Predict the structure.
Amino acid sequence: MKIWLYDTTLRDGAQMGGVNFSLQDKIRIARKLDAFGFPYVEGGWPGSNPKDIKFFEEMKKTPLKKAKLCAFTMTRRVKYTPSRDPSLRRAIEAETPVVTLFGKSWLLHVEQVLRISPADNLKIIEDSVRYLKKKGREVIYDAEHFFDGFKDNSDYALKTLLAAEKGGADSLVLCDTNGGSLPFEIEEIMRRVKKEVNTPLGIHTHNDNGMAVANTIVAVKMGANHVQGTINGLGERCGNADLCSVIPNLQIKMGMKCLPESALRRLTELSYLVYEIANLIPIPHQPFVGERAFAHKGGTHVDAVRKVSRSFEHIAPELVGNTRKILTSELSGRSNIILKAEEFGIHLDKNSPQVGNLLNRIKILENEGYEFEAADASLELLMREELGETQEYFEEEGFRVYIGEKKGKPFTEATVQVKVGNDIEHTAAEGDGPVDALTNALHKALLKFYPTLKELQLIDYKVRIINPHKGTAATTRVLIRFKDPRRMFTTVGVSPNILEASWEALVNAINYKLLKDGEAREG
């Protein structure tokens, strides 16, 4: 069965707290979704804000190549005819081939929110759909709060669908707007709806009870062939159905056609792109596309995966563009070390004493507070050091951090001294806090020797107190996440002094960045 994917990241996803797409962000995501083969891309609500108005104007100049761009709007207000309703008029002016129209299914909203009669609401739905169809648009009718409305008054909820069908809607999308329905409820209600309407059905779920993906899958099983959701499950409150989980479940597990195979194999790439544009840190344990979705830590698990991958993996990670990761910690066995080294492009013989040496070093360091399963970059440097494959790019002569006030405002300055070959650089820089100042000063000292360091960005900084019972003498673990145009990686530092732990992680990051840049040049 063909599944018609409908992405609403640019509207529903943008309603997530902390997400604010710029105009160029929206255009970039829309074109990426188009390139991936999404049939429908919802652009926003024309006229609701200047950014969305500009978005639809820009999209007219260079239309999408494959996807149908959708404008989102509401049914007419009771005081207007369809042709005079401002929202419907703006949707027509957007000149999109598709208009997605939402209307009320729940008597609670009809009587207590809109404060109109049930009969007026049915008339409004039918009129609005018919008007858009007469204007030559494909009309997707989103039955807002449908499942809550059905549970409250099933006869009326069904009448709203029949009103949209009578008006000529091309699809009827049942919405679990509050995100509180359970899969067995979705199944029962879908079964009843199918008996009453002839128009193709769709599903739109929210994740307030953690069931958005499950509810979507059940709806498809019951006959819905139009599926709405967002990349990474972005959305208001607890988010929408995550298309990064919905798509592989439907396509790989259920054999339904959602995306071209080539696009499915780049799903992880799409997930990370949207996180980057939204300025959000990817969720490491996100199903299918998360950094740890195919990560193995326990020694017996790792050994089993090495022998038969499907013994502990429900699909091959490559099917969604992800990769297997072997986590290394005090729980590791020799298999972890060997497979993790392979992941880094390092060959280790299982009988080599270096494997045992690395295993012992890792266990000792983790006992001291290091955490290598979350800091692959530091782990790779440790492995290469054990094998004698590291290069000294610079020597650390020392650093100092000054924190004070300047003109009544907090002021931080870091001074660092490093040696590169025979050259000694002594540099100072300001920053938003001591770690930022240290980063700026270290970059400033090394940039003339290693210009690619200007690409390196600090994107996340985490501090953990290892043994809080020691009070101010407690050991501090610092994990810092960085990115450059080719990768994201994490380094770790441990010390009773938070600045010293941060400095260790910073130095590790620069050494790792330069190591990888050198490998790229050699390759």
Notes: The longest helix spans residues 498-522.
